């Protein structure tokens, strides 16, 4: 389910040992994809913003350091670049504002949420097809749009996920929410 003509070389074998949490599950995911299994995840590796709060290389937060730390940081970055080079068929990005995010996750600080929201909106996932869904909408609408995007991505490159989501959005706008039926 991935499409990328040029991928960087895999990271050195020892980096898999150091960064087991990322490399081994990702390799299993790739094996399943090659067998035709549809994989749905709630995160995907990104290497666009190293050292950010989530989903990317974390050792970039420690600039400098001794030679070992620099080598580990460089290896971790290569690992994330290698993973991110496997472009997913579809990324569904749930867009949200800081007030709604804070209401749902009050243990997260507003500054942290603002940073996450700003960075998420900039991520391009190595050119993957991205469908943005307004996560402030009622859950049944968000779910319908996500499923429509998946159906569109799997069905036909001509219609694609964006038109499937637009159709789902039109249906959601014409149908009252379940609590009003």
Structural class determined from secondary elements: mainly alpha
Give a short account of the largest sheet: 2 strands, parallel
What is the number of beta strands? Answer: 2
Low-confidence stretches: 12-20, 171-181
* C-alpha end-to-end distance: 39 Å
For the record, the count of structural domains works out to 2
Q: What is the overall silhouette?
A: flat
- Major beta sheet, strand line-up: 1-2
Give the percentage of residues in beta strands: 5-15%
What's the layout of helices and strands?
Elements: H1 13-18, H2 20-34, H3 67-84, E1 91-95, H4 98-104, H5 110-122, E2 130-134, H6 139-155, H7 160-174
Parallel strand pairs: 1-2
Helix pairs in contact: 4-5, 6-7
Keywords: ATP-binding, Nucleotide-binding
Protein name: Conserved ATP-binding protein YghS
GO molecular function: ATP binding
Could you walk me through the main structural features you see in this protein, from its secondary elements to its overall organization?
The chain has 181 residues and is mainly α. It has two domains: 13-86, no CATH class; 88-181, no CATH class. Helices cover 50% and strands 6% of the residues. The protein has helices at 13-18, 20-34, 67-84, 98-104, 110-122, 139-155, 160-174, and strands at residues 91-95, 130-134. It has a two-stranded parallel ribbon with strand order 1-2. Helix 4 (98-104) packs across helix 5 and helix 6 packs antiparallel against helix 7. The radius of gyration is 19 Å and the shape is flat. It starts with 12 loop residues before the first helix and ends in a 7-residue tail after the last helix.
